[in-house]
C-alpha cells in the first residue's frame, strides 16, 4: 500500500490475520485450495498484522480481520504505513455500514467482506485479487496526450464555479475520454463530492495535515473514483476546525496529479487563490466564471488584472453563467463593455435542469447531453482542448496579442465606468 518498497524483500504470495477459530479454519481451507501455505494464516487480527508487517516483508495478498478494531479507519491507515506498494488488501468485519465500506475502499482496500464469511465468498475475493496481480499492465495512454491543468475560479460566491468544475470533469472523462482528476480546494464547504453523489473521504485533510505523505501511492489511495476515468479529491472538514496550511500541500497534490492523470481540474475558491498564487502557476487554462451583474463585472476586472500579473502565460477563458437574456442587472453587451473584453462562453440559466441534476446527484452537463444547452458545454470543452493541445509558442503569442488589445483602458477607468452605470440605473428608478 503506502510503505517504502524494499527491493531486496522476498514476498510471500499470501498472509492472513484473523480474530477467531472459525474464520482461521475457513481461510486455511481456501489458501490450501489456491496452493498457498496455510502456516501463513495467523490469529491476531488487524493490530497483529500492523506489528508483524512493520518488521517483515509484505505479501502479495493480505487478508485482515477487523472484527476487534475499535477505530477501523485509523487502523487501516496504520496498516498502510507498514504495507509495501503493490500489496492487495482484503478486509473482513462485522460492521454493515455503507459509509465505512466507502471509506475503506478510498483508503486503498481492495474488498471488504461482511462476517460471517462463506467459503465461496472468500474464494472469489482472493481469486479476483490474484487475477488482478497477474493481469498484464495496460500501457499508460498519458504519453499520447500531454497533461493539462485547468483552474476554475468564480469571481464571486454563488456564480456556479463548482457546477462548471464538475461538469467539465464529467465532460473530459466521459466525452473526451481523458483520465481526469477533480481537486476541490474548498475544504469546508466544497460541493464536488455532493454534486457527484460521493463521500469525500479524508484524503485532502490528511494531505493538509501531513504534506510529507503526498506521493503517487497516496494519490492512488486517497482519490475517490466517480467512474473509470474520473477521480475526485475533496473534503468536508468540520467548520469549527480552521485549516492551517501554507499552501504547500495543495501545490504538492497538483504535482502528483500531473503525473497520474491526463487532465487535472482544480476548483479554487478566491480565498484560497489570493494568498497562494502559486496554485495557478502551472495552469495552462484558467476558466473564470461570472454571472452578469455589476458586482461580478467589478470583480471580473480585478481578477483579470490579477491573472495578468501573476500568471501571464495562462490562457483565461471567461464564462458567463446563469445568463438570462430578459432578466438581469446588465445585458451581455453592457457587461462586456464594462470589462472591455468579450465573454467566451455563455451558459444559459435553466432552473429545471439544475434542480434535476441536484436531485439525481449528476453533473449539470450530463443532463444537458443531447439538448441545445449541451452544445454550450461542447463548445467550452473544445475551447479548452484547443488550448491544451496547441503549440506552446502559439499560446504565448495569442496571450501577448490579447494583452496589447486590452491596453486601451486602465483598471480605475473601468471601475469608474461601472460607477456611472450604477448612477444611471439609479436615476431611472
Describe this structure in words.
This protein is an alpha/beta fold. The protein has helices at residues 21-33, 45-53, 72-82, 98-106, 119-134, 161-175, 192-195, 203-209, 216-222, 248-260, 270-273, 294-310, 332-339, 351-360, 364-368, 372-388, 392-405, 411-428; strands at residues 14-18, 41-43, 61-65, 88-93, 111-114, 148-154, 180-184, 224-225, 230-233, 263-267, 285-290, 315-323, 345-348. It has two domains: 14-134, Rossmann fold, CATH 3.40.50.2300; 144-422, Rossmann fold, CATH 3.40.50. The model is unreliable at 2-9, 136-144, 391-416 and 425-429 (pLDDT under 50). The longest helix is centred in the C-terminal third of the chain and has 18 residues, at 411-428. Strands 8-9-7-10-6-11-12-13 form an eight-stranded mixed beta sheet, sandwiched between helices.
What brief labels describe this structure?
alpha/beta; Rossmann fold; 2 domains; five-stranded parallel sheet; 46% helix; disordered N terminus
SSE arrangement:
Elements (H helix, E strand, L loop, with lengths): L13 E5 L2 H13 L7 E3 L1 H9 L7 E5 L6 H11 L5 E6 L4 H9 L4 E4 L4 H16 L13 E7 L6 H15 L4 E5 L7 H4 L7 H7 L6 H7 L1 E2 L4 E4 L14 H13 L2 E5 L2 H4 L11 E6 L3 H17 L4 E9 L8 H8 L5 E4 L2 H10 L3 H5 L3 H17 L3 H14 L5 H18 L1
Parallel strand pairs: 1-2, 1-3, 3-4, 4-5, 6-10, 6-11, 7-9, 7-10, 11-12, 12-13
Antiparallel strand pairs: 8-9
